[in-house]
Amino acid sequence: MQTVEKWGRFEISAPGKTEGNPFTDYTCTATFKGKNETVKVDGFYDGEGVYKARFMPSFEGEYSYEMSGTFGGTVTGSFTVTAPTEGNHGPLRVVNQYHFAYEDTTPYYSVGTTCYAWAHQPEEIHRQTLEELDKGYFNKMRFCVFPKHYLHNFRDPETFPYEGTPMDNSGLSEETFTYEMDISGNNWDFTRFNPEHFRRIERCIVELQERGIEADIIVMHPYDRWGFKSMTAEQDDLYWRYVIARFAAYRNVWWSLANEYDLLFSKKLEDWERYAKILCERDPYNHLRGIHNCMAFYNHSRPWITHASLQRQDLYRHVEYTDEYRTRWGKPIVWDEISYEGNIDMGWGNISGQELTRRFWEAAMRGGYAGHGETFVDEENDILWWSHGGPLHGESPERIRFLHRILSETPGYGLKRGSGSFDETVAVPDGVDFLAFGGGAGYEIHYYGFGRPSFRDFIKPEGKWKAEVIDTWEMTITDAGVHEGKFRIKLPGKEYMAVRLTKVD
Amino acid sequence: MQTVEKWGRFEISAPGKTEGNPFTDYTCTATFKGKNETVKVDGFYDGEGVYKARFMPSFEGEYSYEMSGTFGGTVTGSFTVTAPTEGNHGPLRVVNQYHFAYEDTTPYYSVGTTCYAWAHQPEEIHRQTLEELDKGYFNKMRFCVFPKHYLHNFRDPETFPYEGTPMDNSGLSEETFTYEMDISGNNWDFTRFNPEHFRRIERCIVELQERGIEADIIVMHPYDRWGFKSMTAEQDDLYWRYVIARFAAYRNVWWSLANEYDLLFSKKLEDWERYAKILCERDPYNHLRGIHNCMAFYNHSRPWITHASLQRQDLYRHVEYTDEYRTRWGKPIVWDEISYEGNIDMGWGNISGQELTRRFWEAAMRGGYAGHGETFVDEENDILWWSHGGPLHGESPERIRFLHRILSETPGYGLKRGSGSFDETVAVPDGVDFLAFGGGAGYEIHYYGFGRPSFRDFIKPEGKWKAEVIDTWEMTITDAGVHEGKFRIKLPGKEYMAVRLTKVD
């Protein structure tokens, strides 16, 4: 008897027809039945005469399956779903409106990073990326299915998503870079996928899963010289169905419909809504869904959007709007692009580790989540983490990991900004979480950002409070005694400090 | 024959009646006549039987005067106005809508500071303040006529503005501080000024003038335990007329109607407008006039307001609105409070020298001006520059002086934000100034703030450009060659850098 763990990936594989175009000419669907669920999915052609269908069970126990269609004969069988193994908490869900938890109720505090094109890099760079991910700095990775054409990204990817041949890239350089280039040198069959390309993506998804990292998959993006961003609606839809059929059964998948959707000038609102409809209909697991802006935010009130995936709209005030955007959209706020730690020429990629860490804390203290990226000039190899992965150079990753540790100690599921009048600095656990978990009122983080107070006074009419001084940059937590009534906590007069107060008994 | 230099202060002094209340019972006015102007001013009672009238001539040549009124006999005479001596450029005026120049057309780039209560401190502190001012960091000082009651400000001032006795201050402390205290222990005659108090202010005005510093006089303010903020309309008006009669003839005076006018809860809009009317009617020299907010901005479109004197309304984005506020009000933008360098507990007084310097540059690059203040905890003496003056401790003053040096090299009268699309970083001379001064287009400062580019590319289709790299923190200007067409300027990948481009023939 075959077995698979709960929230694991069960795959049916069967030979089928190869005449004509197996990607479009035949049907292939599969149904998986257990005591508590019946799930129907699209199968897909994986090349070399093989059709597959994938399934992620949500319950333990006995299941049967049947794969059928015009691709070939009907395949049936059964399997047993066992308990999840350690580290498998299931897919992510929104909890208490503004936060996330795995399906087994384990809280998840998002600390993401971005390596847009890491799936398309040579093995040596890929290995370096995994070494950095092993250090546990991040628990979400944003990356693209399609290859990337942009400054620092003129090399061809290791594989292409379609059968065909790419335009000549030998004349490309920073000097001649433009979005509006002649792409007529490409020769693709947009009805025939290259399964090897998608297997590369799947390897990445699994490598992330093994490290407890969510795969925030960017399905479409505007950085393109191959015509992948300007396919017809029919071609787009074929692509979306293929992507969903292949990736949905991986529990750590998030769907990012696009990066900078508003730079995909050939797409209209109805296109994005149509992709979303395909996704809602064909992803039976309801993985998290978002869509990321360059300038104008998408309307994050749309019901299919599970969380607001944001890029800053202003150079100076951005994550500081987190609490306002929570109110506006009533959803988790995830800042996926808030300028990267680095030293490139562009303002979106040259802030300090201190400033990026501050932005992470500001987002977190207001009940949202921030994302990392790194863009240091690499004159030798032109390898920048933001796009390729490779080695990290910055100072923020360690601090982001430290913030995650602090967040993981939150009673309940997450923080929200405090309501003290004139007090911009207090974050307290989200009220709802709080009551739900019966932790009792009594957990506050007072974060001072670029302020440098030498002390702060507190008034706590009720109970005794344990105080700790947190140096968010030096990553230290220092006991500052137990207090009651009005009391003063001394601070070092440095930037990036916080005071944590926890009510005792 | 008496002489006075142009824009100097000419004073008539004469004995008069002392019966009753000389501050209110008698009239005293004076008229000064020259070939090009006839100026009528209010005289004032200076105590000890002496009445005075003051005049600031705007032209060279022969003048006659006559002081008369019920105070005593008529006094007449004549004097000669000579050319201004070195360093005397006259009072300040608004030029080219957004900037300032002295009346002799010398440009003035405002780099202000604030020592609210320096006029009311003991001699030793006063001396220390002057020593700091001698270093040439600042060219404007904001300070109050009335003494100050606030945290760190519980000592009585050296003098009070009225005859009478103050409430007991022995029980005052940070612990018991409140705005809503019992002030019944005061006993003042609001119709009898204490001339000594005003002479202290005048000494300060002169000391500033001697150092090339404008005296931004705060006539009213809310930090009060003596009842000076809640006098009757009649008492207020008497005070305003006395202040104008005494101070208007000092060429370096600016009128700040109030600090944080919106915290003076007993005053209404019509009160502020009435004070402004008194000022416009009785200050014959039209010194600069502003009114400073705590939360809500005053309506700076009011015609009597010469420049917008602002306190930030947001913790994160403030001076970055300079160009928008220029457009909104069509007047110079002067940020008089944008958080101080220091380490006190409050967010308005604990930013770093780097951050305050950045705010100065941001304001300047967008065509406005910023103000300094310093609030370091002083456990021994509780002397904080922001209020008392005394010794400076911070790192920003030197950098502010350096910025002033750079601004002084602007062709024409001042900068405005550049109009390059997507380019937030360019400041260019205000177009109008430019043409007016025929410097020819060709002066740009590209400022990168907290960005850390390792290089920047420039495209200059016309002419040759001299490039300099400015380190605004280290205060260095490094030659980066002469370039044309498309060229790259290398930068150190640090925060707070700028590139200056000047067209050369």
UniProtKB/TrEMBL annotation, chains A, B:
Domain Apiosidase-like catalytic, residue spans: 96-372
Transmembrane segments: none
One Pfam family linked to the record: DUF5605
Ranges where the DUF5605 domain occurs: 442-502
Domain DUF5060: 3-68
Alphabetized InterPro entries for the sequence: Apiosidase-like_cat_dom, DUF5060, DUF5605, GH, Ig-like_fold
Leader sequence residues: none
Name of protein: DUF5060 domain-containing protein
The species this protein was found in: Acutalibacter muris
Highest classification ranks of the organism: Bacteria, Bacillati, Bacillota, Clostridia, Eubacteriales
